[in-house]
Amino acid sequence: MAETAANDIPVVSLTPCAPRGRINLRGDAGDPAFNEGVASVIGVGPPSQANTATSGSGGVILWLGPDEWLIEVAAAAESELAASLESTLSDLHAAVVVVGDAHITLALSGPKAVEVLAKGMTLDLDPDHFPAGCCARSLLAKAPVLLHRPSVDFLYEVTVTRSFADYISHWLRDAAVEYL
Q1: Cα–chain center distance at 34
Q2: Which of 15, 103, 140, 150 is deepest in the core (most CB within 10 A)?
Q3: Whole-number pLDDT of residue 152
């Protein structure tokens, strides 16, 4: 049984997230037609600020680099959304690649989630430096991950390739054992 904080929030919890559709998007963020095309499909344009995410009616877009984003959508919508993006951006310098089955996402939550992550990652996760809406690629226990803080709650989403999924899941559980 997990230890709980004074307000009955588990101190730390690790749960797998439901399968998601994922689309890798490459393009020219300086091209208004690219931004407008993405916004017409997702409901919001790709974030231009490093290490941030934006949410629209069609999904979440996470910044991965100056010309690269990861779009997360409902798994059932992945193919249709990718086809719509390809069609909309077909006359532009852009690439749309479905990568959904290659990754899984784990939700690490609770007031001690930052302490658990800090055991295996060098990112500064202080809320002043990694506030809600931030995302970053990093290494967690030597495995490449994408870390996303979707809300102000004690919630961090760790996206990892399937080949590292068991390793990261076991590592996180082991790192959290003192809080369970």
Answers
A1: 22
A2: 140
A3: 83
Q: How much is the mean pLDDT over the chain? A: 93
169 within 8 A of 106, measured Cβ to Cβ: yes
| 87's tokens | 């069609």
Burial of 36 (0-12, 13-18, 19+ CB in 10 A): exposed
Q: Give 15-18 contacts, CB < 8 A, sequence gap 24+.
A: 15/106, 15/107, 15/109, 16/104, 16/105, 16/106, 16/107, 16/169, 17/104, 17/105, 17/106, 17/107, 17/157, 18/75
Judged by phi (left if over 0) then psi (alpha if -120 to 50, else beta), residue 51 lies in left
Tell me the Cα Rg of the chain. Answer: 17
Q: Which DSSP helix (H) or strand (E) runs through 81?
A: helix 78-88
Q: What is the pLDDT, as a whole number, of residue 8? A: 63
SS3 144: strand
Of 2 and 175, more confident: 175
Here the tokens at position 164 are: 């590292």
CB neighbour list of residue 35: distance below 8 Å, 6 or more residues apart: 29, 45, 46
pTM: 0.91
Q: Is residue 26 classed as helix, strand or coil in its secondary structure?
A: strand
